[in-house]
Amino acid sequence: KLSWKSLRKRSMTLEAQLQGKLDQYAKIPSSLSKLSKDTDQNYNPLAKLTTQANTLENEVESVFKELQSVERDMASLLGANESAAGGRALARTGTGFGGQVRAHTLERLSSLLATSHQEFTRTKHSVNSSGARAELLCNKAQDRANPSDNTALNKLLNERKAIDRSLATADTAINMAMSSHESLNEQGQTLRSTSQKNSSLATLFPAVDILIGKIQRHRQRDTIILSFVIAFCMLFTLWYWWNKP
User: Residue 180, SS3?
Assistant: First the structure.
């Protein structure tokens, strides 16, 4: 059965291992940055650093898992002791103080795990960024040294550029279509607003609407009368011309 003393000793050992591996892992980005600045380096140093980074990453994650397991065991043991005491032991000064010390130790371990994991995540992101940059620059150096070996890569890059140009053209067409759509919507809103205003005026001034209707009816009647007069004159002219001696 695990005791608090053995768990505490194990946690201290793992904490030292974790800190040492995190320190080693934190040096990888600077090494990769130095490598990326010197493009005359061959690919072997980059591969060695990448392997070292992957190994340290796996080791750090393994230590994290072991520490989390120790943390769970310590929390379980602390909870079991408190439950067994049932408040009777905590009433005594010595036992209560010991429980507080253990609780503080467990809290410190949890805080250490959280802080170390955040540091590891930031360093991992920096390692990935520095590694990608170093690989790109080393590949460019190799391409300049061996241009004949870069035919496939050039084809892929040309295809990528063609795709980017096609995407840019499609984006331009989409933007133009969206602008036209917005303009049509604005014109439609203007027309609807004008129609609503005319309807509102007709509703607010019914006398004006009635007057306009009467004027239209008078114009229609005058048009009909004028048409009859013109028709009569034409018929009379034809009759006179037909019966002229």
Answer: helix
CA-CA-CA-CA torsion sign (9, 15, 20, 21): positive
The structure tokens 């439609």 sit at 188
Residues 154-197 pLDDT 10s:
677 777 777 877 777 777 778 777 777 787 888 878 877 776 77
3-class state of residue 44 by DSSP: helix
Q: CA angle 73-77-82, nearest 5°?
A: 150
Is 8:106 a contact under the CB 8 Å cutoff? no
Token pair 């201290």 in the structure block, residue? 12
Lookup: tokens for 145: 């040294």
pLDDT tens-digit profile of 3-62? Answer: 888 999 999 999 999 999 999 988 888 887 776 555 444 456 777 888 888 999 999 999
Which amino acid is residue 192, in one-letter code? R
Closest listed residue to residue 63, CA positions, set 123, 11, 119: 11
Q: DSSP for the chain?
A: ---HHHHHHHHHHHHHHHHHHHHHHHTHHHHHHHHHH-TTS-HHHHHHHHHHHHHHHHHHHHHHHHHHHHHHHHHHHHHHHHHHHTTTTTTSHHHHHHHHHHHHHHHHHHHHHHHHHHHHHHHHHHHHHHHHHHHHHHHHHHHHH-GGGGHHHHHHHHHHHHHHHHHHHHHHHHHHHHHHHHHHHHHHHHHHHHHHHHHHHHHH-HHHHHHHHHHHHHHHHHHHHHHHHHHHHHHHHHHHHHS--
Contact 121, 25 (CB under 8 A): no
